[in-house]
Amino acid sequence: MLRQALLRTLRRARATAAPRVTGARSIAAARRGVHCSPPAAHGYDPRRVDPSTAIALTFVDRDGARHALKAPPGASLLEVAHANHIDLEGACEGSLACSTCHVYLDQPSFDLLAEPCDDENDMLDLAFALTELSRLGCQVKMNPQLEGMQVTLPPATRNMAVDGFVPQPH
Amino acid sequence: MRIAVVGAGPAGFYATQSLLKRFPDCTVDLIERLPVPFGLVRYGVAPDHPATKKVINTFSAFVNSNRSRINFYGNVAVGDDQPLKPSHLKDFYNLTIYATGAAHPRTLPGVHIPSRFVYGAQDFAFWANGHPDIHSTSAQGKLSERIERDVKGTENVAVIGVGNVAIDIARLLLRPVDDLRSTDISPSVLELLSESPIKSVSLFGRKSPSGAAWTTAALREVVTKIPGIITTCDHGLLRKDMEMSQLSRSKKSMLKVLSEKTVDLNSAELHHHEHQGSRILRLEFLKTPIAFSENVESVNLRLQCSQPAKDMVGEHLNPATKSCEVRDTIESVCGVVFLSLGYVGGQGSGYRVGWANGKGAGIIGDNKWDAETVISSLSIPDTMNAVGISHWLSSTGHRFVSWEGWECIDAVEKKRGSEYGRKDERVKLESVEEMLQVAERQAQNMNGFNQQFRTHCESRS
Question: How far is A143 from chain B (nearest CA, A)?
Answer without folding.
Answer: 27
